[in-house]
TrEMBL record:
The keyword ATP-binding applies. It catalyses: 4-CDP-2-C-methyl-D-erythritol + ATP = 4-CDP-2-C-methyl-D-erythritol 2-phosphate + ADP + H(+). Pathway: Isoprenoid biosynthesis; isopentenyl diphosphate biosynthesis via DXP pathway; isopentenyl diphosphate from 1-deoxy-D-xylulose 5-phosphate: step 3/6. GO terms for biological process: isopentenyl diphosphate biosynthetic process, methylerythritol 4-phosphate pathway; terpenoid biosynthetic process. Signal peptide: none annotated. ATP binds at P95, V96, A97, A98, G99, L100, A101, G102, G103, S104, A105. Residues 67-145 form the GHMP kinase N-terminal domain. The active site is at K11, D137. The lineage of its organism: Bacteria, Bacillati, Bacillota, Clostridia, Lachnospirales. This is 4-diphosphocytidyl-2-C-methyl-D-erythritol kinase. The gene is ispE. The keyword Disulfide bond does not apply. It is an enzyme of class 2 (transferase).
């Protein structure tokens, strides 16, 4: 049986602005997205039984229909009337419910895997159109690299790569609901919008400083007052030499951007010592777009 291995990359939001709301409750966003080298590993193979079988290395990851991998496989199995089943072995390394799009990245990888295993010949764009039915960030997780994300997350524009740097990600041991954070943002009277256009220009100029001085995420307006640990981690990272630090997505993960690996590692030890987070990784931007959907 043919077996394929895929890497599902985590993402961070360098910029996240909310500009409106659709009638179905989804928010209109303007986000600068960046993939990370941090990844989950998926091993996929076709099985004769008409089932979607998922196994995961961590006990708390759902392996039933609520797993986004299951939904991705089911979507293509139904559309293409595939009779065989699929087995997926998930090795999860991306912190879960963290604002790092781990589930969306897994779903994106599963779509790509199904496309290859069953020779469906769908283009990247065709996969992205299906991906958004699973989650707003799935199309971006198919594209990867540095991108501007608009609409609810499905309108994507490729951007020049983030200049090389080191990224420290730290997830505090709290859980926040993405839906809840967006709903609570609606209670805010208005907010200062992050300079997304300026960040795009900085990327075009290849200026890391231009990016780091514009890091901004309006969802922090909801989470930072409620969870002081987020501000605490940001402060520790800044004190240890980060060029900038921000919460990713709906949180609670905080990342810091460093010019040198050694600084990132010192900051990593400081965050660990402070007890503010246990899941902490030093990683780098991942810049390869998916060319082989
Ligand atoms: C906040 C972000 C930023 O990149 O990332 P995460 O924190 O999830 O990583 C995304 O907008 C999350 O995208 P994703 O997690 O794929 O969203 P979905 O599963 O489609 O939606 C979860 C819930 O979030 C809300 N939602 C999501 C996206 C969006 N543009 N507007 C919304 O209001 C909806 O209430 C929805 O029910
Ligand atoms: N493949 C998956 N990996 C992780 N979580 C998943 C997956 N499929 C479904 N989930 C569920 O989705 C929730 C959010 O997961 P995740 O994608 O890691 O969050 P976020 O979008 O905030 O990064 C989890 O609590 C989990 O129950």
């Amino acid at each position: 049986m043919q077996k394929i291995v895929l890497k599902a990359r985590a993402k961070i939001n360098l910029g996240l602005d909310v500009t409106g709301k659709r009638e179905d409750g989804y928010h209109l966003v303007r986000m600068v997205m960046q993939s990370l080298k941090l990844y989950d590993r998926l091993e996929m193979c076709v099985i004769p039984e008409p089932e979607i079988r998922i196994r995961a290395n961590l006990p708390f990851i759902p392996t039933d229909q609520t797993n986004l991998i299951w939904r991705a496989a089911d979507l293509l199995r139904r559309e293409f009337r595939i009779e065989e089943g699929i087995s997926v072995d998930l090795n999860k390394r991306i912190p879960v419910a963290a604002g790092l799009a781990g589930g969306s990245a897994d779903a994106a990888a599963a779509l790509v895997g199904m496309n290859r295993l069953f020779h469906l010949r769908l283009s990247g764009e065709e996969l992205m159109n299906r991906g958004v039915k699973i989650g707003a960030d799935v199309p971006y997780c198919i594209m990867r690299g540095t991108a501007l994300s608009e609409g609810i997350g499905e309108k994507l524009t490729e951007l020049p790569p983030l200049p090389h740097c080191w990224i420290l990600v730290a997830k505090p041991g709290i859980s926040v609901s993405t839906k809840g954070v967006y709903i609570r943002l609606d209670e805010q009277k208005g907010w200062e919008h992050p300079d997304i256009d300026g960040m795009v220009r900085a990327l075009e100029e290849g200026s890391l400083e231009g990016v780091t001085e514009r890091l901004g995420n309006v969802l922090e307006l909801v989470t930072v007052p409620e969870y002081p640990v987020i501000a605490k981690i940001k402060q520790t990272m800044m004190e240890k030499g980060a060029e900038g630090a921000l919460m990713s997505g709906s949180g609670p993960t905080v990342y810091g951007i460093f010019r040198e690996e050694a600084q990132a590692r010192i900051a990593c030890s400081a965050v660990r010592k402070s007890g503010a987070a246990r899941q902490i990784y030093v990683t780098e931007p991942f810049q390869n777009r998916r060319t082989d959907a």
